[in-house]
Amino acid sequence: MAPYASDDTTSGRRKAVRYVVPATVVGVAAATIGLVPALADSGDPDLPKITAQQLIEKIAASDVEQLSGTVKITTDLGLPDLGGLAGSLASAGGGAGGSKDGSSADPSARLTELASGTHTLRIAADGPDRQKVSLLEDAAEYSVIHDGTDVWGYDSASNEVYHSTAPQGADAHGKEHGKGGAEQAPTPKEFADQALKAVDGTTSVTVDGTVHVAGRDAYKLVVKPKDSASTVGAISIAVDAKTGLPLKFTLTPKSGGAAVVDAGFTQVHFAKPAASTFDFTPPKGAKVTEGDDADHSVAGKEKGGAALPGAAGLGGLDGLNVLGDGWGSIAAFDTGSGSGLPSASSGGDAGAFGDFLGSFGDKVTGTFGSGTVFKTRLVNALITDDGKVYAGAVTKDALVKAADTAAKK
């Protein structure tokens, strides 16, 4: 599973809206990132000493393309429990568990389920043309299978199939490696790649001993932002001593408490998976939706961008900018609505729902005017009363400052 990143503007726009986390713009350059040259402490297992810079280079050089295993991922942003409301909204907007005009097996909808709770993934990879990711549920299973030019999504609960085609050498979301693409399943490798893009002179990077993960010997790389505006406390990455593959990723917030993201292999094997692993034929009676037939006409597509699951009703995005860099990055965009959350004065269900959402936020004012800041344990977002959005893994004050700066331009 080779590193995969994109500078594609459309991909960035989709990520910012879907996950409300801006893609960082600082690449990992070993010669310039100012790493702390700490050596690995003695520990169990007993491994040769290595510097932080050498360990990052080992991650970058990792060329593991054949593996199979099980990944457990827990995400705890501290969001309020909205009960069935979240599921209803996702279904209305094309989200997980259903799609008004598309398919419940569409990967762009189903993989958003990983944004909260604890999930178990079974993964397999055999080079750039064959991957499989299965999301194991209580009494069902959802799988995404990429085999050559075919990409299949299968939801056993609804017996629905989603099919699309991709160029040879593309990933499981139909994007060619090195030519811009979409999000991949959140394995420790993908998390680590994104985190290391933010490493620069404002970052402390050290090797903090050794650990065992999934029966493998690993070094523990610890990344800590020095930027006071960041809500990230520390990131710990367990790196396989032999292959350089990240085996476990843990992100803890500056506020303390449980990890916001904890993703790690519980089992991993580096043998070539059986070819039958990637075989797929739609089950008898299954509803099959072809990618070209699915209706993804939600915000963004009309402007030439990709579909944005769950963004129905937002209107088109009036561009997207990444303000700042590294740990202080903030994604800024205009919903195009000209207004913020609906309020009681709007009347009807929209006003009631706007007031309900507003009860979870903090009212703020500044040069930009007024708005509401919604906070999680990691990501915060400011929605101004004139429809602009500022979001990132930064403090409330940093968001207000960014909105004020933009208003003065």
Explain this structure.
There is one protein chain. It is globular and about 60 Å long. The two termini are 43 Å apart. A hairpin with a 4-residue loop joins β3 (130-136) and β4 (141-147). By secondary structure, the protein is of the alpha+beta class. It has helices at residues 9-19, 52-61, 84-93, 107-110, 188-196, 348-358, 396-408, and strands at residues 66-75, 117-126, 130-136, 141-147, 150-155, 160-165, 203-213, 216-225, 232-240, 246-253, 261-269, 287-290, 320-323, 330-334, 362-366, 369-375, 380-384, 388-392. The chain is built from seven helices and 18 strands. The strands form two sheets. Strands 7-8-9-10-11-1-2-3-4-5-6-12 form a twelve-stranded mixed beta sheet, covered by helices on one side. Strands 13-14-18-17-16-15 form a six-stranded antiparallel beta sheet, sandwiched between helices. Helix content is 17%, strand content 31%. The relative contact order is 0.17. The protein has two domains: 35-290, outer membrane lipoprotein receptor (LolB), chain A; 302-408, TATA-Binding Protein. The chain crosses the membrane at residues 19-40. This is DUF2092 domain-containing protein. Pfam families: DUF2092. Residues 164-185 are annotated as: Disordered. InterPro entries: DUF2092, LolA/LolB/LppX, Sporulation_related.
